[in-house]
Amino acid sequence: MAATVFADSLLGKFTSSNKQRLAMVGTGDRGTSMWGIPVIDEFKDLVEFVGLCDINAGRVETAKKILGVSCATYTDFDKMMKEMKPDRLIVTTVDATHNEYIIKGMEYGADIITEKPFTTDEHKCQDILDAEKKTGKKIAVTFNYRYSPHRQKIYELLRSNVIGDITSVDFHWYLDVYHGADYFRRWHRLRKNSGSLLVHKASHHFDLLNWWIDSEPEEVFAFGSLDFYGKNNSFRHTDCRSCPYKNECQFYFDITKNQRYVDLYVKNQQYDGYLRDGCVWREDIDIFDKMAVQIKYASKVQVSYSLTAYSPYEGYRISFNGKKGKLDAWIKERQPWEEDHFDEIQITTSFGKKAVVRIDNREGGHGGGDARLRKHIFNPGNDGDTWNQAAGSRDGAMSCLIGIAARNSIDTGKPVRIEDLVSIKPQAKRPTG
Ligand SMILES: NC(=O)c1ccc[n+]([C@@H]2O[C@H](COP(=O)([O-])OP(=O)(O)OC[C@H]3O[C@@H](n4cnc5c(N)ncnc54)[C@H](O)[C@@H]3O)[C@@H](O)[C@H]2O)c1
User: Fold this and answer.
1) What is the 3-state secondary structure (H, E, C) of 133-163?
2) CB 30 within 8 A of CB 115
3) Residues 133-181 pLDDT 10s
4) Comparing C-alpha atoms, which of 143, 154, 155, 153 is closest to residue 118?
5) Is ligand 1 within 6 A of the CB of residue 97?
6) Quick check: 5 and 112 in contact, CB under 8 A?
7) Most Cβ neighbours (<10 Å): which of 53, 177, 213, 304?
């Protein structure tokens, strides 16, 4: 159904040159690297950029150069939409602003391609769902994590019923002291921007759970705290470049060694004061770095999930407990010199045997997943949706609502029911789209 949604949204949407007119708001790292350069490379016969918009006047010009396009650039979103009338709008701004552009974009007549998280609180979520209904426009949410071959194989094995009905899941995700720390340097460190990592990061993981379990979340309870970053250090500064503790801080990050970051952020800092190499010890950090969440699904599946953002290594472990057996999967960090380039899935059937499935992970762009996601978005007729990976607004909402419910639960100390947050009633079997 979701694939049909994308296909429908393509009909009758061509420019005089017969190409789909694309605009992008939020021309930072993700916008340019995932939805800019590769889209132009892969779909130049089908789409063309007609407008780029960002609140940072310098960054939007840098993005135009990076993309090598000749379209107009804007810092005024309304002006772009009125002048360029794009068919589709790509939303890649700071998370807490997605709602504003998704809603306005649809009101201006565009279908939406939005990055995760769908949005950052329940009120914004309801507003987006209402606007989609009212305008009749469509929202595609780009859950790239669904597309990695390893996760796709897990989906396929679970649907084959090899472990029987799933009753519970143990899921633990580790962000290391490089990748994890980076969230505490950037705009993500403030709840008002990212909704916390429970929304910004974990919405990927919650979406995987919803998709794998094939049900919708009903009730959430959570704990969380900030134990490592932020105020938990004896020294701090504003940013790494000007820091007097450079030589003693293990989290010192030299942004000047990354030319792309220099071009996108350092050279454009004068326009908005944004420090891409902000100090991970700043006292204003108000997101959690340690989180534990319990989720009960409408199908009665129970999930124990945790997220740790200061682990020495990066990866995850997941275990699906079924009535006929157990599926275990893990991703471990690999060094470039390691020869083993497989991710494993282990199936253990009750009173039976163990079997290990090995998935080659050598192909780039998340095992080729990123490119397949772009195909689903821009050329849906050419690639079916065998594993139900294409996602719409309901999937977007259900994933971020678990994080929002978890955050509310941490704040209040009480369990939170999803149906008390928005007008959607969770279903035991997940409706697609
Ligand atoms: N799916 C994934 O794996 C993945 C990976 C990275 C980022 N993302 C998502 O992509 C989005 C962008 O993240 P990023 O890493 O590129 O961040 P970024 O900081 O590089 O880019 C965000 C851009 O939005 C602009 N912006 C901020 N507020 C704005 C506003 N009100 N109006 C217009 N522009 C505004 C900023 O100036 C910046 O250029 C986020 O929603 C993030 O969650 C997804």
Assistant:
1) HHHCCCEEECCHHHHCHHHHHHHHHHHCCCC
2) yes
3) 999 999 999 999 999 999 999 999 999 999 999 999 999 999 999 999 9
4) 143
5) yes
6) no
7) 53
* Claim: this prediction has a pTM higher than 0.90: yes
pLDDT digits (tens, 9 = 90+) for 107-127: 999 999 999 999 999 999 999
What is the rounded distance in angstroms from the CA atom of residue 186 to the CA atom of residue 147?
Answer: 26
* Atom 39 of ligand 1, nearest CA residue: 28
DSSP string across 159-177: HTTTT-SEEEEEEEEEEET
Does any ligand 1 atom lie closer than 6 A to the CB of residue 408? no
CA 153 to chain centre: 20
Any ligand 1 atom below 6 A from CB of 106? no
CA angle centred on 196, ends 150 and 130, rounded to 5°: 85
For the chain, give the longest Cα–Cα distance. 66
**How far apart are alpha carbons 269 and 37 in whole angstroms?**
23
What phi and psi values does residue 140 have, to the nearest 5 degrees?
-105, 130
Nearest to 304 by CA among 289, 288, 317, 314: 317
Q: Which atom from ligand 1 is nearest to the alpha carbon of 144? A: 1
Instruction: Kindly list the strands in the beta sheet with 416-417, ordered across the sheet, starting from the edge strand earlier in the chain.
Output: 354-360, 342-349, 325-332, 315-322, 166-176, 302-311, 290-297, 217-225, 416-417
